[in-house]
Amino acid sequence: MSKLISIDPFNRIEGDLRIELxxxxxxxxxxxxxxxxxxxxxxxxxxxxxxxxLVITPRICGICSGSHGVAAAKCxxxxxxxxxxxxGFHMKNLILGIEVVMSHLSHYYLLFAPDLASPRxxxxxxxxxxxxxxxxxxxxxxxxxxKARQSALEIMGLVGGKWPNSLAIHPTGTxxxxxxxxLTRTIGILKEFRDFLEKRFLGxxxxxxxxxxxxxxxxxxxxxxxxxxxxxxxxxxxCLEAGFDRIGKGPNRYMSYGAYDLPDGSTWLPSGxxxxxxxxxxxxxxxxxxxxxxxxxxxxxxxxxxxxxxxLADKTGAYSWAKAPRYxxxxxxxxxxxxxxxxxxxxxxxxxRQMDSSVMTRMFARLREMCRxxxxxxxxxxxxxxxxxxxxxxxxxxxxxxxxxTEAARGSLGHWMKxxxxxxxxxxxxxxxxxxxxxxxxxxxPGPVEQALTGVSVADTNDPVEVNHIIRSxxxxxxxxxx
Amino acid sequence: xxxxxxxxxxxxxxxxxxxxNSEQPSAxxxxxxxxxxxxxxxxxxxxQGDDVxxxxxxxxxxxxxxxILILEGAIxxxxxxxxxxxxxxxxxxxxxxxxxxxxxxxxxxxxxxxxFGGVVTGHENINEMSxxxxxxxxxxxxxxxxxxxxxxxPVVNVPGCPSHPDWIVETMTALLKGWLHMDDLDxxxxxxxFFSKLAHHGCPRNxxxxxxxxxxxxxxxxxxxxxxxxxxxxxxxxxxxxxxLGRTGSCTRGGFPCIACTSPLFPDKQRPYxxxxxxxxxxxxxxxxxxxxxxxxxxxxxxxxCPERLKKNAVSFKWIS
Lengths: 483, 321
Description:
The complex is a heterodimer of chains A (about 475) and B (about 325).
Chain A: E1 3-7, E2 17-24, E3 27-35, H1 53-56, H2 65-80, H3 86-112, H4 127-134, H5 140-152, H6 154-160, E4 169-170, E5 173-174, H7 180-202, H8 206-210, H9 215-221, H10 225-228, H11 231-242, E6 254-256, E7 259-261, E8 267-269, E9 272-274, E10 278-279, E11 286-289, E12 301-302, E13 324-327, H12 336-342, H13 346-355, H14 359-383, E14 402-408, E15 411-420, E16 423-430, H15 432-436, H16 448-453, H17 465-473, H18 478-482
Antiparallel strand pairs in A: 1-2, 2-3, 4-5, 6-9, 7-8, 9-10, 11-12, 11-13, 14-15, 15-16
Helix pairs in contact in A: 3-5, 3-6, 3-14, 4-11, 5-7, 6-7, 7-14, 12-14, 13-14
Chain B: E1 2-8, H1 14-19, H2 27-33, E2 36-40, H3 50-60, E3 66-72, E4 75-76, E5 87-88, E6 91-92, H4 93-103, E7 104-110, H5 112-116, H6 122-125, E8 129-130, E9 134-135, E10 138-139, E11 156-158, H7 165-176, H8 192-195, H9 206-210, H10 239-242, E12 278-279, E13 282-283, H11 292-305, H12 308-314
Parallel strand pairs in B: 1-2, 1-3, 3-7, 7-11
Antiparallel strand pairs in B: 4-8, 5-6, 9-10, 12-13
C-alpha cells in the first residue's frame, strides 16, 4: 500500500513550495512539485512603456533582481537595435557575476548545508565538523560566509548603486561609471572575497582548485589535510560517505541560453542544448504548457511570445501556479550543472560521466561556477577603462518585439516582449525554476525535480532528508517561478 | 527573550535578502543583541512541513507568546476576494496572517508590498493585493484602519523596495525597547526618523541641482531631476545620507533616478520612471513645500549663475577639472 506524504511548506528556498510524495515501501513512486502562489507580474505589464520593464521585472525576485534586469535590458536592446560601449559589457557582467556568486554562496551555506547537520548523519566520519560548521544560522562557517557575503556585496554598491533592484543596467550600457577610487576599492573587495574562498572554503589557492580537471584529481586533492578539512573538502567526503553521488538523477537533458556577453559578440558561458552531445540552442522550440497549472487558455501550450496568463484557481487536475516549460516538447534541467556541461568544464564533464547527474554533481557544478566566476570577475574589472564611456545614447523607437535571454544563478532566464505603438502589448517571463520545478504537462510528463525524486529510497518518511537534498540541489526559486 | 515570527506573503524575498546585508549588527547578530528568539523564518529556519505547523499551532493556542510579527510581501486577496492566490498549507495565507495579528504584541510590515501593496498592485491592482493596513495611501488593507496590535500601535510600516537593512533592524530595536510611539510615526505609519528626510538630501549631485546643471542622458554626472525622471525631491527616505551596501552606494550614486519606492503610491503613480513629467517648464516632482513661482524664478537665476565647470561636468560621464 502506498501512502501520500506532503512537505508543506518546503522552506529554506526562495519562495513558497509544496512537495507531495507517493511512497511505497520507503521508495518514492511519484512526486508533485507545487508553486502555491500567484503574483501576476505578467498581468501588470501590458500598456506600459517598454522601459518600465527595467523597473518592474527585477522585482519578481529578491535574490536575482539583477538577472531579471539583464534579461529586460537585453529584451529592450533587441527591440531597439541598441549598441553598447565596451565598458558597458564589463560592468553588466560584474553586476550579474557578483549576484550569481553571492547567490551560490548563500545557497550553499544558508540553504543547502544545514541539512548536512541532520542527526541522520551522526555515524559519518565528518559529522562533528559538519555539525559545528553548517548548523542553520549558527554554524561557524555559516556566520563567516554571511560576513563574507555582506562585505563582497559592497562591489554591488560601487558598480550598481544599490541591490536588490539596481536600475544601473540599461539596454545601451550602465548608468553607473567607475573612477580610480571605485575601481581600486572594488579590486580590494574582490581580493578579500577570494581570500575567504581560499582560506575557508577551499583550503588552497583558487587557481589550484580550478586546475583540477578530473574526478581522480579531485580525490587526490582531498588527500592533503588542509584540503580535506576545508568546507569543500568536508562536503566532498560527506557526499561520498552519504551517497549523494547516487541520488537526484535529473532528465539528463540540459540547456543554457549562454551568458556574460562580451564586446566581440561571444558569451563567456556558451549557449547550447545537450542531450548526450551539445547542439545549437533555438529559442523557437520553447513552449510553456499549462495542463497541470492553474491557468486557462484555449490551447495547452504556447511559445512565450504568444503566451497568455489567465489564472484559474479552481481548475480541476491542476496543482501548481507554475507553468511547465518544455524544449521541443521535452523537460530539460537548467542551472550551473547545465552550464558547466555545455561549457565543457573538464571536472564536471568527467564527474557526469562517472556518476551521472546527482545531488553531488549538481552541487559541485554550482560551487565550481562560483569559483570560476570569482576569477573571471577580476579579468572583467581589469578591462574597465574609466576614461571611456559606459553608456551610449539609445534610440527611443522600438522597431520589433524583444527577446532577452540570459543565465541567472539558477539557470536559463528569458523575457519575451511584444510591443505595439511603442507600448508593451504582452510580456512573458520564463524563469529557471519554472524549468526545474515545473509540474506535469498535458501529456503527464513530470518536471525535472519531480523526476529526480521518483525512485529515491527514503530511510525515514517522517524526516525525508534525501528529499531535502535532491530538491535543494536544484536551488529552487519559487518567487521567480510563480511571478 | 522576544519571540519573532517572520512571514512572507506575495513576496520576492528581497527584504530578507536586504536584511541579510545588515552590517553592524549583522542580521544574525541582531537577533542575539536584541534578545530575539526567531520562532520561524521561511528562508533561514531549519523547520519545514509539519514542524512549521506545530510552531503555528503553539502561537495560535497561546502556548507560545508572539512578541513581534514581521510581514514581508503583499497580501493576496484574489481571485474574487477568495484568498486562493496563496494557499498556505491548504488555507488562504491571509487567514493565517489575520489570526497571527490577533496574537501579536507588535507588528512590522517590511517592504513597500507588505506596507502598501507595492509593485504587485500595478495595473489598477488587477491581482487583488493589499498591504497589512493600507492599500496605497488609503487606510484599510487586511486589518482595517482602526486596528492596533497588543502594544497599542498600528502596524509599523518600514517600506522600500527593498527596505534598507538599517531601517529593519533599527525599527525592531525601537519597538522592542518601547521607544516607538504614535507620535514617532507619520500619516502612513512609517517611523519619521527614516522617512521624514528626502532621498535628495545628501545626494552628491546637489551642487548640480542648485545650479540646474542637468544631465541630459544617463551615465552623466549632472542632476537627474530636470530631464531624467529623478523623484529624490519627493521621496521620503534617508537613502543618500545613510547609503546602501556597506555605505558604498545609492540610486543616484549609481547614476539612475530615484523612483520613490518608499511611497505608498509606488509603482504606478511614480511613472514615468526615466523621464521627467512637466507642466510648462516646471517638473511635477518639485518638492511639495517649494512655491512654484519662486522655483521658476530661482532656477532661471541659478542657470544664469551656473559655473562653467558644472555645465561641462553635468553632461560628461567623467570628471573634467
